[in-house]
Amino acid sequence: MAIFAAGIAAGTINTVVGSGTLITFPALLAFGYAPVTANVSNTIGLVPGSVAGAVGYRRELTGQRSRTVRLAIASTVGGIAGAIALVSLPPSAFKAIVPVFIAIALVLIVIQPRLARVLGSRRRDAHQSAGPAATIGVLLSGVYGGYFGAAQGIMLLAILTLALDDKLQRVNALKVVLVGLVNLVAGVIFVFVAHVAWVAAGLIAAGSIIGGTIGAREGRRLSPTALRAVIVVVGVIAIVRLL
Question: How many structural domains is the chain composed of?
């Protein structure tokens, strides 16, 4: 039930902002799963939640087909590269690197309000279509997402808001699709070459579908301050457990 509830929370958070992994990943660690197994199972489990979120944002996705396809290619390539890195590097490397990734993700979450103001002030210089710099940024965020993925959504929001002159909800809808695609391609690789805890992945998947639907419909009403506080606390717990 706890893992299922974590899946609901992560699906909601991923749709609204990003960083839902900072809920489900520590939950799996708490139940004794090895870090790499927890990450692999979490990645697979969150895919259905992204689909649910994208369906919920389908109106905001209208008219974005061209740039979605272009950036989806970059996300796919990045996600594959990140997943290959995860299964190729020894587990000790993951345990050493991920605390740093989580710390960076927590910093991004804490400074997100200020970052949003800065990005908003620069939107006048943005464009309707993503240029090469944005494509490279999406590619690199895909590599990060395929390897671990916590706060990938926040990174993508920063990149896309800088690159695109569009409403934030439309940009967020694009982010949901790209994050889901990274999880999907990484998950397909993990199914064949990594150890998956299928019960845990199934519980997260079921929860994330509910959460993704909630996030697309009601998640915008959540208090950003309270949400960030919960994520930071959970992220710190994850760092302590990994260290």
Answer: 1
